[in-house]
Amino acid sequence: MAVGFATATHRGSGDFEANITLVVIVSCILAANGGLMFGYDIGISGGVTSMPQFLKKFFPVVYKKTQEKGIESNYCKYDNQGLQLFTSSLYLAALTATFAASHTTRTLGRKVTMLIAGLFFIVGTVFNAAAMNLVMLIIGRILLGCGVGFANQAVPLFLSEIAPTRIRGALNILFQLNTTIGILFANLVNFGTAKISGGWGWRLSLGLAGVPALMLTLGSLIVVDTPNSLIARGKLEEGKAVLKRIRGVSNVEPEYLEIVEASRVASEVKHPMRNLLRRRNRPQLVIAVCMQIFQQFTGINAIMFYAPVLFNTVGFKSDASLYSAVITGAVNVLATLVSIYSVDRLGRRLLLLQAGVQMFLSQMVVAVVLGLKVKDHSESLTKGLALLVVVMVCTFVAAFAWSWGPLGWLIPSETFPLETRSAGQSVTVCVNMVFTFVIAQAFLSMLCHFKFGIFIFFSAWVSVMSVFVLFLLPETKNVPIEEMTNRVWSQHWYWRRFMDNDENGHA
């Protein structure tokens, strides 16, 4: 079933004949449920760790500190390595799992890898919801982390490979959209379960992760694998048949031949990780690694992980802090829709540069307000200033959600050539999880020591990454995924030097 049409041109020009088919839309929506699970994991931890009964059971030292008035610094009430390990253990597991996921993505396909991710999510959810001690809780988070590693490896590749070129950005951002929906869903769940009497609301919060976990598992059984993956594994006829099905046209020969050629080149690579280090692959590798580091050093996960804790820190009461977290989650979803609409129209660079200015200014305002008004042992902000903090946090979240959030995953997934795509995505996920782990493990301690300076720290990084985008990030909108080298890297003022005089042969 087709709802649109793109004209065909000769092979090599990059504009292949393709309809926007129902099977592509449905497959992308189902696959993007990996983002829903990822987002739920991000959002649920912050709310749960602000629930008194959860803290009392697993982190009694933190619980005691939160109940003491005027003794502990406002900025240090939640500073506890065990509490941070609960959040960050997921990301440590994810960065380890991504290397196994790279192998399954390459040898078994994107579809099977997503199924494995869904199964990890389901088992991890059971452990968390039934946790009787900290060990069970951490085991559950580690299993969820394995699911994140496999899902974040397979889903962005799946979306980039199955989507028609002209809407590749929008469809790939479905992953990030579902991530933001997952965060919002988690915030709403926490807001509701925090009111449950009897102290078991946190179990329901953790247990409801089973909903997106089941959706991803069932979705992975329904979707078709990508033609690129099928052809790379020698299933040429099946790959061609799937290509016809997802493009909704009979003339897929130009695109099919280009994928076959890319697959032939990829098959000559015996050691993808070693090949990734070759000179001609350096631009994509540097871009992918820097995008992940910068994405985390915007400070977004510090806010999303610990939004309720953060709002409690600046003086909001428990319900008010959860309510504020719901607001930021809703802004996150709406702003991601802006990115879906604009990414293939305005391009990647413009969104990143505009957002850099917005994120810098909003974080500096928060730093000034907290620096002037929130002292170590003061009770709270005034109502007006508290509202200003929420507005500025929402302004920051909106800018991130239409820029570094989705584009941090989109750009690496669309720039690597087929022979290094799986390995490149593995490095992308690994670096992302390393720095997500670092931020999750360190944020509460940084908040305690830096105080309001934490926002100055992150805003300085926003300045650095904006300069990086201005000079070193090329525009990739409307460029077919198998033609990035010739049409992007070979034309860039700096990166083109790496396209010449490459080493002979394949690693």
From TrEMBL:
GO molecular function: monosaccharide transmembrane transporter activity; symporter activity
Membrane-spanning segments: 20-40, 82-100, 112-132, 138-159, 171-192, 204-224, 285-309, 321-343, 350-372, 384-405, 426-446, 452-473
Domain Major facilitator superfamily (MFS) profile, first and last residues per copy: 27-477
InterPro entries: MFS_dom, MFS_STP/MST-like_plant, MFS_sugar_transport-like, MFS_trans_sf, STP/PLT_plant, Sugar/inositol_transpt, Sugar_transporter_CS
Single GO cellular component term: membrane
Keyword set, alphabetical order: Membrane, Sugar transport, Symport, Transmembrane, Transmembrane helix, Transport
Subcellular location: Membrane
Main location: membrane
Membrane topology recorded in Swiss-Prot or TrEMBL: Multi-pass membrane protein
Classification via NCBIfam families: SP (TIGR00879)
Similarity annotation: Belongs to the major facilitator superfamily. Sugar transporter (TC 2.A.1.1) family.
Name listed for the protein in its UniProt record: Major facilitator superfamily (MFS) profile domain-containing protein
Phylogenetic classification of the source organism: Eukaryota, Viridiplantae, Streptophyta, Embryophyta, Tracheophyta
